[in-house]
């Protein structure tokens, strides 16, 4: 049986060009004992993948050139030589960017049966959702009534973060760009602030207008002017959870940081980076808390879907243009 | 009775000029009930005072123009109408920058009797010492065996921080400038790294050489290139306690921050600002732990002393030229 997969021809400098992603095919060997073959139905593309394209070890090894790229995926078992899996089982795994995956059964996660569409386990109930929940609760120690600011607030992570924060009763402000994203935020009773065409100074002023008392928590996905503006609007004792700095992932040279880090001192504030894989043992706890709310329709999650394996690199590259609302997915 | 005091003629922009500090005198009114008159013997000058000269409220109100400046001081009661104090008592208070202070007795702290020179209560056992201890223990959660980096490591705060850290058994590296400061560090078995004539890249490389495994804790007094270099040398789970950013206090315009904040994410590190006045209720605990070690000569503390009230502004301004080793004091 053939698998078709994307491989990277070279490590990009700056914004990756579409041509670096090469669609290849390969004959799969027969299944070994303990192995499972899966037909992928949904692939995830996520901003963190850009870090694995740098050729440098950060918190995770870089992608290998000319080898199948990796990422979260959902699929159906089509053949199994592992005792826990049989044909027809739905599973989640990390062998994305391809149509057919062949893996040790030990690395597969069976999908829970919660009466929700399977692709939700790549988004609101997958890594992005878990990231939103962990950043707020475990890193920023979100408390009842906290005022919360979220950047990239209509993205896969941000759109859950604003809703989880809102449920705790404080003022929630979301930063986004496009008009439809701002509208989505307003529909959910989130105060929406656009970053478009603004420098840090103007964005600071607009955040102040949206929440004059300042923020107890800042959920950071973007960096750059968003971070600088947020630092100007902290309450005493504020906590910043750094989930990502998407504004800088495609920069060829390091950009200067915010000029107002002294606000951490003045406001006795804390800024902490985290990586979701460190917290994955808490996934069952997250699922138990957030899963039923998703199943009952209390949490709105959006998806931006590209069709077909061939579109996977385009879906990925669109992340950096802000083209997605909610989770960016590829349907096979 | 006359008091002689320094007042600020105007709020400085950039490095304050000596002429902004005006020595004045004033006839003191008679003592009211509950008041105490003190002859100051030692005055403290500290970097944080620059923040109070900005004319802007940060975490503490700005100094009033044309009024006596304030700061920690040690003196002897010469007249008292407060039941707890009598002539001859040694006290600490915040009415520095003057020779005679007249205050409500309620704001005075009697000096503990620990057989150490009284001016130590302005330094190693005063606010700077308490700041070192709090930053390490309460903000950075210093643990046994931690590798610790301290900037301005021979200053009033840093020189205690390196010794407290060293006692916990890990590698301790101190950043300083002048040769005698580096030597002082080496004498205390602290690995000394000079920042002189280096950019952040070179300083990063030198820190890496001094402690190849990286740092669990960074005690930050300086900012600028020191922070950037430290961020390049963090271990996973590192904690940064931000005590101050002395490199920026005299800047006229905000300078860009470090370009490598993404290391907070990669290393899942935490950076937290603190202000010692928030923690002052812990002072007795600090004194109990550190006081006996100072009395027994286990902790080396240095002093840089200017003589005479007239020299107080010079002592203060010298802080920003790195002219002090250990605590900068004025003896009256």
Structure description:
The structure is a homodimer of 332-residue chains. In chain A, strand 8 (148-150), helix 3 and strand 9 form a beta-alpha-beta unit. The model of chain A has no long low-confidence stretch (mean pLDDT 95). The first copy, chain A, has nine helices and 15 strands. Chain A has two domains: 2-123 and 302-331, Quinone Oxidoreductase, Chain A, domain 1; 127-277, Rossmann fold (3-Layer(aba) Sandwich). Chain A is α/β, with parallel strands linked by helices and 332 residues long. In chain A, helix 2 (127-139) crosses helix 3 and helix 5 packs across helix 6 (225-231). Chain A is globular, with a radius of gyration of 20 Å. In chain A, the strands form three sheets. In chain A, strands 3, 4, 5, 6, 7, 14 and 15 form a seven-stranded mixed beta sheet that branches. In chain A, strands 10-9-8-11-12-13 form a six-stranded parallel beta sheet, with helices on both faces. The first copy, chain A, has helices spanning 49-52, 127-139, 158-166, 179-187, 200-210, 225-231, 262-266, 283-295, 312-318; strands at 2-8, 21-27, 35-44, 73-80, 90-93, 100-104, 109-110, 148-150, 172-176, 191-194, 215-220, 234-242, 270-273, 303-307, 327-331. At the A-B interface, helix 7 and strand 13 of A face helix 7 and strand 13 of B.
